[in-house]
Amino acid sequence: SVLPVESGGGSVQAGGSLTVSCTASGFPNEHSDMGWYRRENLGSWCDLVASVSKYGSAYYAPSVKGRFAIYRGGVLSERHLQMNSLQPEDTAVYYCAADGPLSPRVLCDIASSRYSVWGRGTQVTVSS
What we know:
Layout: E1 5-8, E2 10-13, E3 18-23, E4 33-39, E5 45-52, E6 58-60, E7 68-72, E8 78-83, E9 92-99, E10 105-107, H1 111-114, E11 117-118, E12 122-127
């Protein structure tokens, strides 16, 4: 898979905001969705939290809807995930991914072999 350039994340207190960014050459495109998964507490599963489909429609997991938003950067292949009103339960490693389509959940350890784009992950820590 393609290794994207990821940035952002970090630590914040509850109620604060953070942004994670992803740039993957050639993505998104007319064949693929692009979004972010997160892995909590070093669990086996990565859950899709937000994505944009190849048709331009956005998906947000119920737990983040209304708080997170995907938007495009200045470069065609750049996407940002703005995370507002962060809570301790949002603490996780966030992974950028792209393929067509993205599953709601994927085993983290095999994701890089399954998806065209899978990042190394960015830590987001929210303290109470």
